[in-house]
Amino acid sequence: MNVTSRQEPADLNDPALRARAVAAARGDAPFDVLINGGRLLDAVTGLIRDADIGLVGALIASVHAPASRTDAAAIIDAAGSILTPGLIDTHMHIESSMVTPAEYASAVLPRGVTTIVWDPHEFGNVHGLDGVRWAIEATRALPLRVILLAPSCVPSAPGLELAGADFDAAVIAEMLRSSAVGGVAEVMNMRGVIGGDPRMTAIVNAGLASGKLVCGHARGLQGSDLNAFMAAGVTSDHELTSGADLAAKLAAGLAIELRGSHDHLLQEFVEVLNGLGHLPPTVTLCTDDVFPDELCEGGGLDDVIRRLVRYGLKAEWAVRAATFNAAERLKRSDLGLIAAGRRADIVFFEDLIDFRARLVISGGRIVARDGSMQLDVQRLDTAPLENSVKLLPLGENDFLIPSEGARVRVATIDRPRFTQWREAETEIKDGFVVPPAGSAMIAVAHRHGKGDGVPHIGFLTGWGEWRGAFCTTVSHDSHNLTVFGGNARDMALAANAVISAGGGMAVAKDGKIEALLPLPLSGLVTGVSLTDTASAFSGIRKAMEKIVDWKPPYRVFKACFGATLACNAGPHQTDRGIADAVTGKVLESPVLEVL
Description:
Layout: H1 15-26, E1 31-36, E2 39-41, E3 48-50, E4 52-56, E5 59-64, E6 72-77, E7 82-85, E8 87-92, H2 101-108, E9 113-118, H3 121-127, H4 129-140, E10 145-150, H5 169-176, E11 181-187, H6 190-194, H7 198-210, E12 213-216, H8 223-231, E13 236-237, H9 243-252, E14 255-259, H10 263-276, E15 283-286, H11 292-297, H12 301-310, H13 315-322, H14 324-329, E16 346-349, E17 357-362, E18 365-369, E19 372-373, E20 407-414, E21 420-429, E22 432-433, E23 439-445, E24 456-461, E25 469-472, E26 481-485, H15 488-501, E27 504-509, E28 512-518, H16 530-547, H17 559-562, E29 571-574, E30 577-580, E31 585-587, E32 591-594
Parallel strand pairs: 1-6, 2-7, 8-9, 9-10, 10-11, 11-12, 13-14, 14-15, 20-24
Antiparallel strand pairs: 1-4, 2-3, 4-5, 7-16, 16-17, 17-18, 18-19, 20-21, 20-32, 21-22, 23-24, 23-26, 25-26, 25-27, 27-28, 29-30, 30-31
Helix pairs in contact: 3-4, 5-7, 9-10, 12-13
């Protein structure tokens, strides 16, 4: 890949910069900026102390006693603020917020997030290498520091689904040669790694050869499987399922990217960490996926910290996980600590409860003040992301399964998230299979132009009664057109609304569209503001309440976007049929037997 990024962290080692910083630290030259009157939260010791901070360019030159220095070109009064290092989100996907990188940066920087580790595998699954190249270019000039990772599983389950691209080890190695790429993104094909599949073995080995990070996705792994996954070279996990799972992964030695996107688990995680009596150095924090309304209302990593503290975690621990521990994990000795010689990423928080940022400094520059950006954010042309939905309009019969006979035995996909196989008997009416009692339908159509666009249909149990339909092109991780519903008419209506919009989401009920969110960029993202995107997405949520009754924590709206994640254990509907990562088989039709 012919792309480079800003040359961090080597930029701090410029001899002239270091010489200026040394002179200022000695007192023989003034600081560029002096921050006085603040209280410093030491991310290592967890102690809070009064301290002033002198900056030279992007470098922290001095952390010294209050009021002991006054010589500086500019002085910032930090009275009443608690100063922490800039927050570091160790695993996330910008695409999940459905806005561009520039819009995302404008949302999180004012909240104190100065660094993110972005796995752009959503763009990669849709556009291939061109999608990753676009992501790099889109972040190059942002005031938000973005460490990109090479998407490791495009598609997430080869042979079980068809995405818009196919990244083998040679493609991964090419991406890793770029200075813009910081490692291998979450390795989701767990069974491939554990079983020694040549493709996945070569991908992990490419990461090891690069000397960069090899990040993981170890949901449900334990015992010999977890050992095998780690022995292959994978070093982290964010797919924690319980407090016991967290304890086991910590004991195993994995770096933990404790994510905020599954709030119902955070209380358990806090109890485990508090029970240890200390914060392990391997615990970092991440957002993973944040929807636009959540980002607009709650924020990014700052919201994860806020909730962890609310659930009983010491604020000092939460900050350390999001700063010093994160920097250590990323092998970035310039980040994560307010200390002489480190990079000047500093956040002025009002307190350690609400974590409201008053001022944000990144690389020695004021980037945000009182919740507003202070710098212009450059936006990259989004034309390369357009026209990604390559599907013709669909009819009602495309959402029905033809069959002979009077009755059939069918396979069903039981339960959201933690799926399992089930079977049911049902009747044939007018030559089509009637959905089994208590079931809903799911249909997935390939939308990238690399295969036929005929929907493959399955039956869902444990998903409640559907009184309409929902269609989305945000469907992890191949992002094919996915439709849920209780009847073929509404399913076709919702699907065609999304196809006509060039991607996005639609809710249909009683033969009319209840809500529509166009996502014409990659079928994942919109070019409008976060505020407008959040409002439209909230409209989708509200409309969904009319067509299905949710039952937390697993039967929730978010489950719709992971229902096609074929790399996870259990049956999942894909554009090829009902796929099972454990057996490696695909059931093209749910009809098992004509009775």
